[in-house]
Amino acid sequence: MDLRFPIEQKVMNRAEPFQLAFARGALELIDESDNLRSKASREGLIMLGSDEACLEGAVEILLARYGHSLIIDRPRVRYIGDETLREPIMALHVNIPLRYCGIVRRDLKARGAGIVEMAIRFRVCAIEAQAPLAELLGYAKALDRLTNGTGDHSMRLLRYAPLAPGPEGDAA
Questions:
Q1: How far apart are CA 91 and CA 95, in angstroms?
Q2: How high is the pLDDT of residue 46?
Q3: First and final CA of the chain: distance in angstroms?
Q4: What element of type H or E holds 25?
Q5: pLDDT of residue 82
Q6: CATH number of the domain residue 114 falls in
Q7: Phi and psi of 78, rounded to 5°?
Q8: Which of 2, 16, 37, 113 is deepest in the core (most CB within 10 A)?
Q9: What is the pLDDT of residue 170?
Q10: Phi and psi, residue 77, nearest 5°
Q11: Cα-atom radius of gyration of the chain, to the nearest Å?
């Protein structure tokens, strides 16, 4: 497993009886980068990304070509399973207008994020945080909703950490 890509998404084409044929054709449309890898499989196109944003860009390209015939699975976190199950922890940088600082901080805390640093300059609040990727899925849309489209963010893989035990003491 390539540890640089902690998130994956599968795309299939309902109009194609053989998903491997669809996936091979789709591979020609998507440029690989340091943040995105794709592979053809019998189940469809499997995209591996460094974050959700790079997957979204690839999905937009596929939608432009194949339209509504696509079946797009939700992005899912790639865990490492050896003796101890480990999850990707992301470094998150958020820039928002000062008036949204409190609500965004509360949202990050609710997602299990640890605030590493916060700075306010020129009526802009910059927040550095760390959080499990599983808690950050969908964050771009949530941030848009919380800030009326005025916030932006970036994230990168920081490390893999043991999965926190659930309320009963069992790993999820």
A1: 14
A2: 97
A3: 20
A4: helix 19-27
A5: 76
A6: 3.30.70.240
A7: -100, 110
A8: 113
A9: 43
A10: -75, 140
A11: 18
Residues 6 and 136: beta-carbon distance below 8 Å: no
Q: Are 87 and 163 in contact (CB under 8 A)?
A: yes
Q: Average per-residue pLDDT in the chain?
A: 92
Number of domains forming the structure of the chain: 2
Where among 77, 103, 128 does a domain terminate? Answer: 77
| Cα 5 off chain centre by | 10
Q: Which residues of the chain have pLDDT under 50?
A: 169-172
C-beta separation of 44 from 99 below 8 A? no
pTM over 0.90: no
Helix segments in 28-91, DSSP class H:
52-66
CATH number, domain with residue 72: 3.30.70.870
The whole-angstrom separation of Cα 157 and Cα 136 is: 12
